[in-house]
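[User] At your convenience, examine this fold.
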Amino acid sequence: MITEPVVRHDFRLVPAALSLWLGALLGLLWTWWLALACGAAAVLVSLGLLIKLRPARSRWWAGAAALLVAGLLLAGPLGLRLNRAEHDPLHGLAQRGTEVTLRVLVTERPKPVRSAGYADQQAGPRSVVIAADVLHAERHAEPVVSTGRVALLAPFATWSEIIPGQEVTASGELAPPRDADLTVAAVHVRGPPVEATEAPWWQRAAESMREALRNACAVLPEEQAGLVPGLVVGDTSGLSERLDREFTDAGLTHLMAVSGSNVAIVCGAVLLLLRLLRAGPRLSAALSGAALAGFVVLAGGEPTVLRAGVMGAIALLALALGRERSVVPALAAATCVLVAWDPAMAVSFGFVLSVIATAGLVLLAPRWAESLHRRGVPPGFAEGLAVPAAAFVVTAPVVAGMAGQLSLVSVAANVLAAPVVAPATVFGVLATVVATAWPAGGELIVRLAGPEAGWLILVARRASEVPGAVLAWPSGWWGGFLALVVAIAVVLALRRRRLRVLLALVLAGVLLLVVPGKVIAPGWPPPGWAVVACDVGQGDSLVLATGEPGRAVVVDAGPEPGPADRCLDRLGIERVPLVVLSHLHADHIGGLDSVFEGRSVGAIAVGPGRQPGWAWRQAGQIAARHRVPLLELDLGRRLEWPALSLEVLGPRYVSEGEDDDGTQINNSSVVLRARTPAGSVLLTGDVELAAQADLLAAGTDLHAEILKVPHHGSRFSLPQFLAAVSARLALVSVGSGNRYGHPNRTTLDTLTADGALIARTDTDGDTAVIPDQTGPAVVRRGK
């Protein structure tokens, strides 16, 4: 068998890159003095090497000279820049929460900050974070001398259309920066942008092209339409919170950020076309460079995009021009240039991922692929396994520290995703270019990216649903260092046969002990279940068995898509004859769409309340999209199934007045009595004091063996109401660590004093009620 010669990489610039990176990192995380100390140490070491080595005889003399330059940069301009940022006047004012007025230059696109829906607040982005450079600052009309970098936390509605290159005036309250970079302060902006200038023409052109892509994607299904712009230019504004979380859990979130892989795909497609046309190396390099510049402009030209452009182009151009040995020095040189240009790169997780991912693909992946090939794995499959495995090993420590979790399904998910990433990106870029001048043509091309996006969504969703797919991990730099130690230990163990056997035994033990504990041991769902309170976070979703296999009634759908769907999957529900929305607050209707996924639904039922207006319109749109009727449940109405009956007990009265705090919407909740084999269940939505008093005053028979505690166990429950129910089992649907103080201790104590057993979804997970000889019994699935 003929083997390819081993490429000997040139590591002479690596010490300079590492010293520059480490010095900037320490200077930003702790103090600028450490950057100065690292620079001085690098200078002393390099001078010693330069004196000892001779340029004509030692190939490392050039590396020592580069180390000297890096040390001088750290001890000089970089150290001074870190010092200015650390002692910027705005930094001190931020500690006191001072009000200021700033004139800034926007440097990056607004990043939406998503919030979960609750009460009358719709889920989605309510604010944006915008990076900007300070041009002028004033405090009480007095100038403040600052040239620092700030992060604007501004309202989404008025600031989301701002694009890089614009100068704007903003007023707000300063706060200490969250990240340890060159940002000197965060600014909580309350008003709209003032005196905004026009952005440069190329930024306006890029924004119009991104808008053309978003419009073209409207022909795709909703989730695919939100994903394609993220795959192409990192635009995740249309991405749902559910899909974002699933991609994170599956270890695929890197696909939705502009990275070196995007650049490599675009330039690689251009190079492949040019090679088919038999273009020469210089012409190929020139045209691929033009494609690279165009893509950088399209993606926004921000610092993160420039970083990705530099990193992604290194390996591609070096390999395309037949200079494999130049990859490592080019990577080291790019690291030096980027850190010297912007020291904040040293603490950027994206920068770290770009560098080590490129290094891993260059240094590890070819060796691992060759090793697999020697063991009989076909070449194509060898590379397909080696590339994601190498990328996972080198990036796992950074991802673990960044996200506070480690995806154990990342390698498998990336192997499955890899074949469609390139075509989806190429079709998306082509659709963007075409749609700018010819929208119909852009829509036609973007349809070609739809199946690939659908496959990625399927892979992410199924991978995130694997039991134990995500391992909780300490976050921050120390968590990343711990993951690095574990990764090194695993790699070293795989190099020795005895340690490989030991590692295999450990993994087998984990599979035998942990997986059955998560999948088999709970025996979920329990046989004969009648009611299940789903763990959907800070919201409500209950499932009532109808007595027919795979068929159940759903009452409320939780605050977001995903949790209710997974709960129904675990219960094996394929048909839902009725979805009842107790009222229209976001934490009860946010997951409505996901109830329809893979299931037939008969109808959606609501009470008399129509507020908030956005939620009523959303419920109508979902019903129309899935072609199911939207029904109103009248007082006294009865519904029957073989093993379930529902009776509408309330609301007795719906107020039409102003509702500033959502109390009236809560009091418009549909109150149901469900009769099940496990006993009667009182389903109360979020009824508060007035609605509870109305039910008592009307003489309604409220007695039930099982109570769905109103409003997540809040303090707004009448003791007389709880006593009238006299439940033996109280189900509290509530999210762990919520900021509302739910459930209230007094409410829980009152229920316990009345003889009720408490079951809570925040501590017990999905909770099932089953019939027992002595009454209802509870089975907890666990978290």
The chain has a mean pLDDT of 84. The chain has 28 helices and 26 strands. The radius of gyration is 30 Å.
